[in-house]
């Protein structure tokens, strides 16, 4: 497995963030702060971690995690514009061979199919390159747009997870969608 890697689709491509992406990333995140906050993970108050990492610390950490094969994070690009981010995290090998996908998209690019294509591209990478057996997408039940993405990308509803993740300041219920690698026996 090599890193960094760029994954290409017809209209979008996925590539890891670079230090020089900082201004674009900060601008897109600032413009979308209110739109994304109901769906964003937060740190529970019991964690004394402190402030979020700087952009440079985040990029270093994401690349380190990818080199160790634990998590693979990509910016979603349309032409030369950063329009979102997608990650395959919690990667476990051995008998389970699984991971989970999370993503966000610029509100100006929502409902154009880009997120679904990004999920399809990353799922293909998970199954064909990493040879994972199972990939999950966990989302808030009220997030209809994210549910459509999972379903259009071929993920199947598996069940509910009460108080699953700390999102927007509290432990929130999630629903789980799963896709399995039919090529693995």
From TrEMBL:
<dbReference type="InterPro" id="IPR016181">
    <property type="entry name" value="Acyl_CoA_acyltransferase"/>
</dbReference>
<keyword id="KW-0808">Transferase</keyword>
<dbReference type="GO" id="GO:0005737">
    <property type="term" value="C:cytoplasm"/>
</dbReference>
<dbReference type="InterPro" id="IPR051531">
    <property type="entry name" value="N-acetyltransferase"/>
</dbReference>
<dbReference type="InterPro" id="IPR000182">
    <property type="entry name" value="GNAT_dom"/>
</dbReference>
<protein>
    <submittedName>
        <fullName>Unannotated protein</fullName>
    </submittedName>
</protein>
<dbReference type="Pfam" id="PF13302">
    <property type="entry name" value="Acetyltransf_3"/>
</dbReference>
<keyword id="KW-0012">Acyltransferase</keyword>
<comment type="similarity">
    <text>Belongs to the acetyltransferase family. RimJ subfamily.</text>
</comment>
<dbReference type="GO" id="GO:0008999">
    <property type="term" value="F:protein-N-terminal-alanine acetyltransferase activity"/>
</dbReference>
<feature type="domain" description="N-acetyltransferase">
    <location>
        <begin position="12"/>
        <end position="178"/>
    </location>
</feature>
């Amino acid at each position: 497995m090599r890193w960094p890697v760029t994954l290409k689709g017809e209209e979008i491509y996925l590539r890891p963030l670079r230090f020089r992406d900082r201004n674009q990333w900060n601008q897109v995140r600032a413009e979308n702060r209110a739109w994304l906050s109901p769906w964003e993970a937060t740190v529970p108050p019991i964690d004394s971690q402190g402030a979020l990492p700087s952009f440079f610390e985040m990029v270093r950490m994401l690349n380190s995690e990818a080199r160790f094969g634990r998590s693979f994070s990509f910016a979603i690009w349309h032409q030369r514009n950063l329009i979102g981010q997608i990650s395959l995290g919690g990667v476990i090998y051995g008998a389970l061979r699984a991971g989970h996908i999370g993503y966000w998209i610029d509100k100006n690019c929502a409902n154009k199919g880009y997120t679904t294509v990004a999920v399809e591209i990353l799922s293909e990478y998970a199954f064909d390159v990493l040879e994972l057996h199972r990939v999950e997408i966990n989302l808030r039940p009220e997030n209809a747009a994210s549910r459509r993405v999972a379903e259009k990308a071929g993920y199947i509803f598996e069940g509910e997870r009460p108080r699953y993740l700390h999102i927007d300041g509290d432990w929130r219920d999630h629903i789980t969608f799963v896709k399995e690698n039919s090529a693995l026996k």
